[in-house]
Hints:
heterodimer; A: alpha/beta; Rossmann fold; five-stranded parallel beta sheet; two-stranded antiparallel ribbon; globular; B: alpha/beta; 2 domains; seven-stranded mixed beta sheet; 38% helix
Amino acid sequence: MVAVKEISGAMGLTGDQLLDVYYKMLLSRTVAQRERMLNRLGKGPFAITGEGHEATQVGVPYALRPGYDWVLPYYRDIGVALTIGQTPRDLLLALLSRAEDISSGGRNMPSHFSDPKLRIVSGSAPVATQVPHAAGIALAAKLRGLDEVAAVFFGDGATSVGDVHETMNFAGIHKLPVIFVCENNQYAISVPWRLQSSVENVAVRAQSYGFPGVTVDGNDVLAVYAAAREAVARARKGEGATFIEAKTYRQVPHSSDDDDRRYRSREEVEEWLKKDPLTRFQAWLQERRLVDQGALDRMQQRAAQEVDEATEYAENAPKPDPESALRHVLVEEEGS
Amino acid sequence: MPEKTMIEAVRDAMLEEMKRDERIIVMGEDVGSGGVFRATEGLMGEFGPDRVLDTPLAEACIVGSAIGASLNGIIPIAELQFADFSHPAFDQIVSEAARLHYRSNGTWNCPITIRSPYGAGIHGGPYHSQSVEAFYAHVPGLKVICVATPYDAKGLLKAAIRDPNPVIFLEHKKAYRSIKQEVPDEDYSLPIGAAEVKREGTDVSVISYGMMMHHSLKAAEAVEQEDGLSVEVIDLRSISPWDKKCVLNSVKKTGKALVVYEDNITGGFGAEVAATIAQDGFEYLDGPVTRVASPDVPIAPYAGGLEEFVLPNPEKIAAAIRKLAAY
């Protein structure tokens, strides 16, 4: 038997898994940048992305079982969708609202991820409405005796919405297998955290609902993964919910229609760019000689190529038939 | 065949469906102890707390978690204690339940039933009396039912529970115990979207639903005895979808259409019925499409006298029938 030496600080992840985590973060960044570029080229009327959130968006779902556990993302979660199993092609088809877009067939705005076979639940745009769905899914799993977990993602803005309070309360009462993931980038569009809450760490609220809340460095993918792994284990064992607050920063404007220069200084943005989650994880991998420059370059090329191919495919894919706008209002009769 | 009240019929429908299909659960405020109207009485003893779930007082979470449960193999019946309290859940109903199927291009669906007592006439004041059906009938992706008889309540509630779409099931609370009717013990369901001619006639068509249908029947009796008028009374039962064919067939026969609804006159569901008759039944008409509804004040002021003044009643309906018949 060959003894496998655990990589120190890797939270039990193997070398291959660590590189896979890095690649998913890189792919998320590449897709996001491409989406914003296509928007600027006039090819899609809207883009909403989350550069800077990749450590959280990859670290949490990496602890889940894709297609078994349930994921309720919000509109910034390109990394969540990719880590659970959507492809750059899926996301680019949604950006350009093509007929075969799995998330919505061009009905929803981009970054409203959905994929029933992956258990990525379709979301809407009113902030926090997806949160009670996670509790319902978890309640159903519990009633059916299944050990499925529901992970619901939202920004710091959502924590002001009553749905979050109502759901945390409900999940606490019934020890529901829910993981609340707050990607706290410290701004609800332009409103800074200090005007959203008088408390520094929103995770402390979990205590009042009777389950653990943890605040982690949301730009440290391994710290996020470790918190998520523990939360998943708790949920799976029937011990109930966990609230994970991942402190991070949105490196880009809220959406393609926002100009963040009106509310954030360039100095502040520059400071946070120094804490970029990809750069940090890359340095961590290099320090441990888990990757060399050649391998990093090859990953970069691979991501660019994947996204190029996805873009080309999506640009050539047919748009939805206009008359299809009338379909699927209600579950249609079989055969219709 | 046993005579039952509407509340008993509602309870029977849930009990029988929950026995038939163990995926069905009931959730809401006070449902475990039977609820304020006793609609869920006995269900806790029969099915236990897993399937008869007392929730915190949080309507958005009741509906939102029902939506979630329905995505994972459960068929929830969510009870909102009064339709007036559906407003905190409006976002979940309108943005989520109604749009999920459409926005996912038909790949997700949400088979939930939201039951709620609605309507005035019991001195419930402005917050236990509202008619909310027009809000939800306005929203594509929902089915909306308004029942006011025991037979219809059992058959349509079963249909709602079995429907793969989100259904808003509104029970007129004044009809809960005021009307008894023979209701079969055996299983039956009624088609959603089918109106019923509750009384046949040839001079005037009265199109109504909910408690107003009962008032319209009384008015029809009165004008028959006092004026010799033959009045047809249609109970829409289902507001969305609604049975345009039944209504237009009746108007074709009578040439006169009176639409009666309890909600405020402006933008109430009867306004849609009236517009449809005006547009699609114009050739049949021999008089103005007429509405009897509540004035545009918050329904319903509490004090005796105030409420009665505001709500349509058999006398007001009879007066409108006479005027229209004479046109």
